[in-house]
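Hello again, I could really use a second opinion on something today. Take your time with it, there's no hurry, and the full record follows here:

___
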Amino acid sequence: MRRETRVLASVAIVALLLGLAAGAGAEGPGGPAATRVSPTVGADFRVSGPGATSGENWGAVAWNGTANEYLVVWSDSRNEATRGSDIYGRRVSAAGAPLGADFRISGPGATADDWYTAVAWNGTANEYLVVWTDERKESTRGSDVYGRRVSAAGATVGADFRISGPGATRDDGVPDVAWNGTANQYLVVWADFRSESTRGEDIYGRRVSAAGAPVGADFRISGPAATADDWYPVVAWGATANQYLVVWTDRRNEATRGGEIYGRRVSAAGAAMGLDFRVSGAGATSNEDWPSVAWNGTDNEYLVVWQDERDSTTRGLDIYGQRVSAAGAMAGAEFRISSPGATWNEGVPAVAWNSRANRYLVVWDDDRDMATRGWDVYGRRMSAAGVAAGAEFRISGPGATADEWKPAVAWNGTAGQYLVVRADDRDELTRGWDIYARRVAG
């Protein structure tokens, strides 16, 4: 439970930071009085099913280009008393309608807590790989990273399986996953405690075949100098370069710069390429956290976004971004994504690339209307050059007047839309937290 406790403690810190300004007034800058043209499509809708009445969180989403639909996955507490939290999923149509019932993904042996999900679609096999933090062997190995394949029809394929290797006997968790269409393999990355006494927490990875079998040994991604804690890794596959970019929160310069965003390229064969490098810029001397990354296939580069505290005394938390070339070099300067009017707190971002318009959607938690609506989910479209393409806008709908948490986003190249999912607290008294979603135009 130690790794989960640390993550949930950081969640509590984010919640505190996002709520710090709530007592400052009845309405923050850019609240209901601010007119914005929203590209949201249709109403927001609940994804978690009728039986999910105990609390759902840690949502993730992937788009299926063959079926033109999504798979949304999350951590679900409906069986907490007998199994702990489980991993559940549900298909969602391109039109924003749940398809079939929600279903359990974590297997019969997963009778402790399963949480912090990620999912990737395999375009060759037309199926998904879902990964999560799993505590079934907590007493002997600590938490592990597990995965399971899911068919396009929403059926589990084979048994769930452990991805973290034999040497990962402390705590491993908060995974992410990307599919490599050239090699028809996945890369799964996670935070790993095996060398805590000498290096702190590291970032590890392991390749997984399309058939759901680990390929080779797990390997360390964070470099020799990363001897403090490294958290919250995310990964994107760069199709043109046939490589991955893994980014994370890094504490090596905690005393002088706070937490930073670092990255390292990984080859399709599962080998670190060059040294790890700092993504957050010279001005980021407070704490940067919760990174997300997307690959731009047109410009052959990545966009990394994160939560940034450099102006916390005057603006609260902001969302920043930095373009990174396929060679692992910074492309231009870092830039703020949250607007001048967003002077409360914005955090926990996610990003997806729009292949039609060659631009991104960045989404985040936003507490500008904390006093009247709780946290909301906001978004902003950004050009490939890192320039705002229109104003930021609220994605959570009129009925979302409690808290919304940790958005995730996927781009649908067929429909020309995004699907943004999040945990939603509107029915806390009767259902606990739910998973909600809303479509956004490209």
In short: The CA atoms of residues 149 and 158 lie 7 Å apart. The mean pLDDT is 92.
